[in-house]
Specification:
- The structure holds two protein chains of two kinds.
- Chain A is mostly helical.
- Chain A contains four helices and no strands.
- Chain A has one domain: Non-ribosomal Peptide Synthetase Peptidyl Carrier Protein, Chain A (Orthogonal Bundle).
- In chain A, α1 crosses α2.
- Chain B has two domains: 171 residues, 3-Layer(aba) Sandwich (Rossmann fold); 128 residues, Rossmann fold, CATH 3.40.50.920.
- In chain B, the strands form two sheets. Chain B has a seven-stranded mixed beta sheet with strand order 2-1-3-4-6-5-10, sandwiched between helices.
- The chains are: A mainly alpha, B alpha/beta.
- At the A-B interface, α2 and α3 of A face α1 and α2 of B.
Chain lengths: 78, 321
């Protein structure tokens, strides 16, 4: 994934995370910031960052950082 | 819509995030839609909407009276308008504007009250909202609907935009809401939905607290008590016909609401029963007209008698009397 670093940056910025605490195994609800409202903000930031429009089904399915990589591939973010 | 297939996942997002998702769908369906807020785009799950439709989104800032004034003005110019902020501020801070601009002048606005009931218990009763239904119920020309889960919210919002009057949509619970409706069903504002059939006791509830009602009814069935559960999602106009039918069939009606027992669902049911000749007893469970200290959602539900165990106890003790 060529845009992986950008994806990680958006993740960290969206949740105001400490870079050192980030790991790729992170899942929905693992940290207080990634609650349902944080999830919608993350989707918004990804849409803006990659200039895409994520389908509703994919927003619901976006359950982890790694699942996000698979979903973003559908939008040609590779 | 595809979205209907995802009830389970949708519920994990809860009402507020689902509201944000639905807003995106509604914008496609209604080109004349405007959403107004008082500084809550993120909290309402509306960040995506705000970026995608900047010309159809107005944040008036923390100025709720203006929220209703601006919304009413947009409505009078022919827009379909959804206003939203946290429930106490969406209803009581701008109550006079709701009365005059919406009730009296009949400008149509769908007001979405976020995080109503007890879910913000840790912030205390400045943010909990147990008075919104009672306050708005006395204003003519405003319907009041409390969706039971995110799937029902989808149905309510779709119908509310085309409803004849302004509608107050009261959102309860946080994320990971209990699934009340696990398959599709017919929804109409003002028409109650029977979730479980029964003939001894009827529990009438609204909002996500219906999850506790369903659990309580299932446990009562194990004790051979045939307990029905009715989703009275619309508190105004109340489904009088359904309440009268329930009163004829049952010995006991128990209303369950995340609201003061004065002025809300229980009061509405009592008003219908008062005009009926019936032997059916009514017991109202809810906030018993007092403010407790703040606490977690689960804690507050327990102390106000809204936990599964307390609902069962109330049913059993009133059946014995």
């Amino acid at each position: 994934m060529k845009n992986k670093n950008k994806y990680i940056e958006i993740f960290i910025k969206s949740f105001s995370m400490d870079k050192k605490k980030f790991n790729e195994k992170i899942k929905y609800n693992d940290i207080p910031e990634w609650d349902s409202i944080g999830h919608m903000s993350l989707m918004s930031d990804l849409e803006e960052g990659f200039n895409i429009s994520i389908d509703t089904d994919d927003i619901i399915d976006f359950s982890s950082f790694n699942k996000g990589i698979k979903i973003l591939k559908k939008y040609k973010i590779v | 819509m595809k979205i209907e297939k995802n009830i389970k996942l949708w519920s994990s997002l809860g009402m507020r995030a689902t509201f944000g998702l639905i807003a995106m769908e509604l914008a496609k369906k209604h080109p004349d839609l405007m959403i107004t807020t008082s500084d809550v785009s993120t909290s309402a799950g509306l960040d995506r909407y705000k970026k995608k439709y900047p010309d159809k989104f107005i944040d008036v800032g923390i100025a709720e009276q203006n929220l209703i004034g601006v919304s009413a003005g947009l409505s009078s110019e022919g827009f379909k308008v959804i206003s939203t902020t946290f429930a106490p501020f969406q209803t009581m801070r701008c109550c006079e504007q709701i009365k005059v601009n919406l009730g009296y002048m009949k400008n149509k606005v769908c007001m979405v009250g976020l995080a109503s009931g007890l879910v913000l218990g840790n912030l205390g009763f400045t943010h909990c909202c147990i008075e919104d239904v009672g306050t708005l119920r006395s204003i003519p020309n405003i319907a009041i609907v409390t969706p039971s889960d995110p799937f029902e919210l989808f149905k309510v919002l779709n119908e509310a935009l085309d409803y004849k009057d302004s509608v107050y949509i009261r959102l309860t619970a946080g994320s990971n809401t209990k699934i009340i409706n696990d398959k599709d069903y017919k929804f109409k504002i003002g028409k109650a939905v029977e979730i479980l059939p029964g003939k001894d006791v009827a529990i009438i509830g609204c909002g996500n607290i219906l999850g506790n009602c369903i659990e309580a009814a299932s446990m009562l069935r194990e004790k051979k008590i045939q307990c029905s559960v009715v989703n009275m999602h619309t508190i105004k106009p109340i489904d009088e016909e359904k309440i009268k039918e329930i009163a004829k069939k049952n010995k006991l009606i128990v209303t369950v609401e995340e609201h003061n027992v004065l002025g809300g669902l229980g009061t509405s049911v009592a008003e219908v029963l008062a005009s009926e000749v019936s032997n059916c007893k009514l017991v109202r469970i809810g906030i018993n007209d007092f403010y407790s200290s703040g606490g977690s959602y689960e804690y507050l539900k327990k102390i106000y008698g809204l936990s599964v165990e307390k609902i069962i106890q109330t049913v059993l003790s009133n059946l014995k009397k």
